[in-house]
Write a structure and sequence with these properties.
Layout: H1 7-20, E1 22-27, E2 31-36, E3 39-46, E4 53-59, H2 61-70, H3 75-84, H4 86-99, E5 104-110, E6 113-119, H5 127-139, E7 145-151, E8 156-170, E9 173-183, E10 191-199, E11 204-207, E12 213-215, H6 234-253, H7 257-270, H8 280-290, H9 295-308, H10 313-323, H11 330-344, H12 348-355
Helix pairs in contact: 3-4, 5-6, 8-9, 9-10, 10-11
Amino acid sequence: MKTGRSLQELAIELDRQQAAKKDFIVDQGALSVTAADGGISLNVGSSAGGVLNLSQYSVNEIAHRQIGQHLKIPTSYYDRMRSEYPELLTQNINGWFSRTPTTKRMLRTLDGTARAFLSDRYRRIDNFEVAQTVLPIIGGMEGANIESCELTDSRMYIKVVNPRVTAEIKKGDVVQSGIVITNSEVGMGSVSVSPLIFRLVCSNGMIARDAAVRKYHVGRANEGSEDYSIYRDETIEADDRAFLMKLEDSVRAAVDQARFAAIVDKMREATEVKMEANMVPQVVELTAKEYGINEAEGKGILGHLIAGGDLSLYGLANAVTRQAQDVESYDRSTELEATGYKILTMSPALWRSVTRERR
């Protein structure tokens, strides 16, 4: 499992961001973009008090992608204009903004950067609130410890392992039960609590997302004040309190012994699903194509599979989660931990297709 921040570092950054971030509901007619040497800037006009004020924000990669998707500008064309002809990109964006000036969008900002460009129905469930809810529960779990946590531009991650709940997949191969809690403040995923399996022999993590409990960031339309700032009303606050109580139950349920045992049974079954040694490169290549694994990651997985010497479906899944430790991005590392479980539980028909000898 990839190492991220310490719990103390996570808490400090969450506290800082909670104070620094600001959200707006803005009519598209009050939005514009400009191009400069530093890149594209997003401008927000306010007429509070009858005086036009203009706030300017840099735009991160997530917000760029969301602006393009909202305006239906193809990604490849958006990226080409951005790199080769930014003035044309600003003309495109400003032109489409002006066509529907009363359309409302939620703009989420942090440290002078537009970090998300979302629907006005986006329901804000923030990392600070999620952490405040789950950390006391984790602290009350006897023996549980936070194995890894991180805060990226797209998500917060808290990965917890409970050494009191263990099983042996095969002789000497011990796994422990855990959970991974994720949240995105910028439209990149739901609040999610998923079972996590931690393999002691190589410190790999495997995430069973098909057993996750999720809450999506969708609600009724938000409203802004004169200067576009968003304030919570009593109804939204009550809904959030109810959800956070459900989140508490989900965290406790995620370490349930029966659920852990069901996942362990799948892992044991996968140890009996074998591949021929001469088929290993093909199996890795075809599996990589099926599960969106790039060429560099595929080479790493092949190396870990051969080094591990376990030529089974279980060995292949573990090679993927071992490769998760080698990638630079924490987001991608976590995706690979979930991909490892998807591979472990692939259908028999798909396994036959990746292990069938080519003619």
